[in-house]
Amino acid sequence: MDLEDLRAVGTALEADQVLSAYRAGLFPMGIGEGGTGPIGWWAPERRGVLRPGDLHVSHSLRASARRFTATVDTAFAEVLSACADPQREGAWITPRIAEVYRALHAAGHAHSVEVWADGELAGGLYGVAFGSVFAGESMFHRRTDASKAALVELVRRLDAAAPGRWLVDAQWWTPHLGTLGVSEISGLEYLAALEDAGRDDHCQAFPTK
């Protein structure tokens, strides 16, 4: 992360506050070691996004995805816990952060995509959805290509619910995300895209509470 992308610092962190921040183009992440407080509110100058038609699905990933079974919101707590594993490199999801996202999930705003193999959770991702925007927070895998397969399922659902209108916020672009089709746009471009996709009242990619 780049401190130039830090917009505000505080101690309060509530579910409603976080949801409002996403709608304004901000997201929370602690600025201390391992994501500890105080809470930083971030809006990257260069934003990583995945847009309709941009997902790169290689032949090997297409074959891998067929070996998994995908579900939505059946194991949110398990996905969140796996993403929050403090042994992971770059771990930042603290117990307080996890508590807020569990509250967002209970309210119908945060969702998970899970992929399964042999009856076991093989990987997944979670994030916050509003309009036809999915603000991705984290993903994990226990088997090769499992997190990528979760992304394929996410895009499939968004394509079905809001064809040509959806937006996935990946926060910061990385070379790994770039191989999947994530591109980088300016913060101002992101806000414009967020306004368009965020006001979509017809996206039903996820079950409603």
Could you explain how this protein is built, in words?
- The protein is of the alpha+beta class and 209 residues long.
- 33% of the residues lie in helices and 28% in strands.
- The strands form 2 sheets. A 7-stranded mixed beta sheet has the order 5-6-7-8-9-4-10, with helices on both faces. A 3-stranded antiparallel beta sheet has the order 1-3-2.
- The model has no long low-confidence stretch (mean pLDDT 94).
Task: Outline the secondary-structure elements.
Blueprint: E1 6-10, H1 15-23, E2 27-30, E3 39-42, E4 46-50, H2 59-65, E5 69-72, H3 76-83, H4 95-106, E6 110-117, E7 120-130, E8 133-141, H5 146-161, E9 167-171, H6 175-179, E10 183-186, H7 187-198
Parallel strand pairs: 8-9
Antiparallel strand pairs: 1-3, 2-3, 4-9, 4-10, 5-6, 6-7, 7-8
Helix pairs in contact: 1-4, 2-5, 3-4
Mean pLDDT: 94
Query: Strand count, sense and closure of the main sheet?
Result: 7 strands, mixed
Query: Taking Cα atoms only, what radius of gyration do you get, to the nearest Å?
Result: 16 Å
Q: In sequence order, what are the helices and strands, one letter per element?
A: EHEEEHEHHEEEHEHEH
Given as residue ranges, the uncertain stretches (5+ residues, pLDDT < 50) are none
Judged by helices, strands and strand pairing, the structural class is alpha+beta
Distance between the termini: 34 Å
- What overall geometry do the principal axes of the alpha carbons give? globular
Neighbour order of strands in the largest sheet: 5-6-7-8-9-4-10
Strand content: 25-35%
- Please estimate the helix content: 25-40%
DSSP strand tally: 10
> Number of helical segments?
7
